[in-house]
Amino acid sequence: MRFKTTTAIALISLAAAPVFAQSKTEVLGTYADIAQAGYADSLATAQTLQQAVDALIAEPSAEALQAARAAWLAARVPYQQTEVFRFGNAIVDDWEGKVNAWPLDEGLIDYVDASYGGVSDENALAALNVVANPVFTLGGEEVDAAQITPALLEGQLHEAGAIESNVATGYHAIEFLLWGQDLNGTDFGAGNRPWTDYATGADCTNDNCDRRGDYLKAATDLLVSDLVWMADQWAEGGAARQAVLEDETAGINAILTGMGSLSYGEQAGERMKLGVMLNDPEEEHDCFSDNTHNSHYYDGLGVRNVYLGEYLRVDGSVVSGPSLSDLVAAADATVDQDLRDRLNTTMVELAQIKTAAEAGFSYDMMLARGNAEGEALIMSAVDALVDQTRAIERAVTVLGTGALAFEGSDSLDDPNAVFE
Amino acid sequence: MRLLLTAAFCLSLTPAFAGVEEVIEDHALPGTAAFAQAAAALDTAARADCTAPSLRPAYQKTFDAWLGIAHLSLGPLEEAGRGLTIGFWPDSRGMVGRTVAKLIADKDPAAQTPEGFAEVSVAGRGLFALERVLYDDALAGYAEGSYSCTLARAMTHDLAVLAREVDTEWREGFAQSLRSAGADGNTRFLSEREAVQALYTALSTGLEFIADQRLGRPMGTFDAPKPRVAEARRSGRSLRNVILSLEALRGLARSLSDAPIPQTEAAFAAALDKAEILDDPVFAGVADPVGRLRVEALQTLVSKISSAVAQEIAPALGVSVGFNATDGD
C-alpha cells in the first residue's frame, strides 16, 4: 500500500524532470573503482612508511624517527577516505579490525606512564608489555615471544582474551610505537617518544630497543601485507568488487549503509560526541600523534567521495564516474540537492576543526572540561553529520531499495529466523 | 515547490499513522514523567541524608524508571547528549571507575555547584557514576560532611535536572515535532513516515541493545566470558535491567502498531518468561558453560523478538529501520 504511493511519486518525478539516469551497474562500477584506488593509495603510502621504518631501525636518529612519523601521517590521508567502505561490505568490515582498531590499551605493547593504571574490569592484559617480556602467560598458556613476528602479533596478541582494546596490529599500534603516549592531557602537545627508544647499545632508552624495533617492523610489514590483500579484493575479479556488482540492489544498499553508519553511529557518535562528553583526550581517534582533526576530516570526505562518485588520488589524478548522486537526482532532485548540501556543510564544519587544530588549538584542547569553543566546534560537526544521516535515509527512501543491511541484525540477515 | 507536491501526495494517498499519538501519550510522556518524579525523589532524599544505605532504595527506583525511556534515543535524550550522561554504559575503557575515583581523590570542586558539575565528564555523572559511590565497597562508607557526601548530592541533583529537562522537552517540544511530521515548517520530520520510522528505529535498536550489549557483553566468547562487565552488577540490577527494558519495548511496540501483533507478543512473552526464571541477577553464571548457555538462550529469544518486529510491525507501518547510534563498532 505504502510502497505503491512511493512508486507513484517516483514515477511522477521521472516524468517531470529531464533524466539522465545512470544504470546501477555503472554507479557500482565507480564505487568499486574508488575503493580500488583508495586501497592502492593506502598501500603505496604504507610502503613508503615501511621504508622509513626500515631506515629508522637500521640507523636510528631523530631525523629518521621524524621521517617515519611524516610517512605515517601521509598514509592516513588515503586510508581514512576508505573507511566509508567498511560498513555494508562484510569483506572490509571483517578485515578492518586488524588494520585500524581503536581505542587501544597500549600497555599491552610497550612501557606506559604510571598514570595509565593497570588491569581493569574489562582487560586483564592492559599492561602486558610485550616489548619487555619475551615470555608471558595468555589465557593460562605460556607464550614464547622471543621473536616478535607478524604471526605473533596477528595470531596470538591481537584481541587477546577476546578483548577488543588489545590492539596489537594496525595503524594505531604503529602510531603508538612512533609517538608514544600523549601525556599532555587536554593541554597542547602530542606523544613525545625519544628517538633513542630505537637506539642501539648504551644509547637505548626505556630498555629493549631491539625488541621495540622488531615490534614496529612486524606491525608495519603486517599493515602492508593486509593492504595488499584488500587492494586485490577490489581489483578486477576481486571478491569485494564482485560482491557489490553481483546484486545491484544489495550493492546500492552497501553504499548507503556505509555512508549512514559511518556518518552517524561511528563518526558523529562514537568518535566525536563521546570524546566531548567524556572530556577525554584518549577519545581522540589518532590520540598519540594528535592527528585526530585529519582523521575526522578524511572520514567525512570519504562519505562525500562515494556519493558524488569522485576521488582525488594521492598523485593528483581523479577517479570519477556515474554516481549515486545521479541515481538519487533521477528519482528526486530535491532529495539529491539536499544531501549534497548537507555533505558540503559537514565538510565545512570538519574543515573548521582542522583549521583550528593546525593553527595551534589542537583537538585534545577542544575536549577539555569547560572549553566552550572546542565543544561548539566539535558539536557543530556532529550536528552536521546527524543532519546528513537524515538526508541519507531520505535517499534510501526515494531509491526504494528497501531495508538497510545492518551488521549483526538477525532480523535483516535472516528474515525467517522468527519462524524457526 | 517539489516539497509541497510530495507532501500533498502523502496526505492524500496514505492513511494517517495512528501509532505516533499513542506512543506519545501512552508510552513516552508517562515514561518521562515517571523518571522525572523518581529522580526528583532521589534528589530530595539525598538532601535529607546523603549516606549510601539511605539512598539505595531511591536509586533503585530511579534506575527502574530510567529503563522505561532509555530506549527513546531520539529527540531530548539525543540532544545535549542527555541519554549518554544519564546512562553511560557500556564503558569499554573503564572510564567510570577512574573518573569517580579521581573526583574523590582530587576533592574536585566541580561538585560544589550544579553549573560546575554539569561540565564534568559524563563518566563522572549519571546513574553509573552514582552506582560506584553508593555500591562500591571501597567508596560507599562515607559519612555526612565528607567530600563523597557532597559528590552524591551533586550527582543526584544533576540527575534530577536532566530528568526534568527530558520530560519538559518531550512535553513542550518534541511531542509536537512528532505530531506535526510532514507539516510546513517541520524540518525534523518531512513526512509522517519519517516520524514513524524514527520510533520504529528506537524499538529495533532497543532490542538489539539488549541482545548485543546487556547480554552479549558479559557473555563475551565461550572461551573468555566477561561477567565483570555486566551492566549495573554492583547494584545487582543486570537481569532486572533486561526485564524492565523488554517490558518497556513491548509497550512501545504495542503503542506503535495499529493492528494486532501476535508474533511480536508471543516473542516478548517467551523472552520475558525465560528472563524471569533465569535466577542469575548479575549474569555471574556466564563464567561456567552451563550458565553461559542459559544466558545465550535468553539472547536468542531476544533476537527472535527483533525478527518478529521486523516481520510484523515494519511492513504494516511501511517503514524500514533507519540508521541508529549503535551502528559504529
Attribute tags:
heterodimer, A: two-stranded antiparallel ribbon, 15 helices, 4 strands, 60% helix, globular, disordered N terminus, B: 329 residues, mainly alpha, A middle domain of Talin 1, 12 helices, 0% strand
Please characterize this protein's 3D structure:
The complex is a heterodimer of chains A (420) and B (329). Chain A is mainly α and 420 residues long. Chain A is built from 15 helices and 4 strands. Chain A has one domain: A middle domain of Talin 1, CATH 1.20.1420.20. In chain A, the strands form 2 sheets. A two-stranded antiparallel ribbon of chain A has the order 1-2. Chain A has a two-stranded antiparallel ribbon with strand order 3-4. The N terminus and C terminus of chain A are likely disordered. With 329 residues, chain B is mostly helical. Helices cover 65% and strands 0% of the residues of chain B. The longest helix of chain B has 33 residues.
Largest sheet of chain A: 2 strands, antiparallel
Named CATH topology of chain A: A middle domain of Talin 1
Report the structural category of chain A.
Answer: mainly alpha
Give the uncertain stretches of chain A in residue-range form: 1-20, 405-420
Order of helices and strands of chain A: HHHHEEHHHHHHEEHHHHH
Q: What percent strand of chain B?
A: under 5%
The oligomeric state of the chains shown is heterodimer
What is the CATH architecture annotation of chain A? Up-down Bundle
Gyration radius of chain A (Cα, Å) is 23 Å
Roughly what is the average pLDDT of chain B, rounded to an integer?
Answer: 92
Strands of chain B, total number: 0
CATH architectural arrangement of the largest domain in chain B = Up-down Bundle
Compact summary:
The complex is a heterodimer of chains A (420) and B (329). By secondary structure, chain A is mainly α.
Note the topology.
The complex is a heterodimer of chains A (420) and B (329).
Chain A (H helix, E strand, L loop, with lengths): L1 H15 L7 H35 L3 H20 L8 H11 L34 E4 L2 E4 L5 H8 L13 H9 L29 H26 L4 H8 L1 H31 L13 H17 L1 E3 L5 E3 L3 H8 L1 H26 L4 H4 L5 H28 L10 H4 L7
Antiparallel strand pairs in A: 1-2, 3-4
Chain B lengths: L1 H12 L5 H30 L3 H16 L14 H5 L8 H12 L7 H4 L8 H10 L11 H33 L12 H28 L18 H19 L5 H15 L12 H29 L12
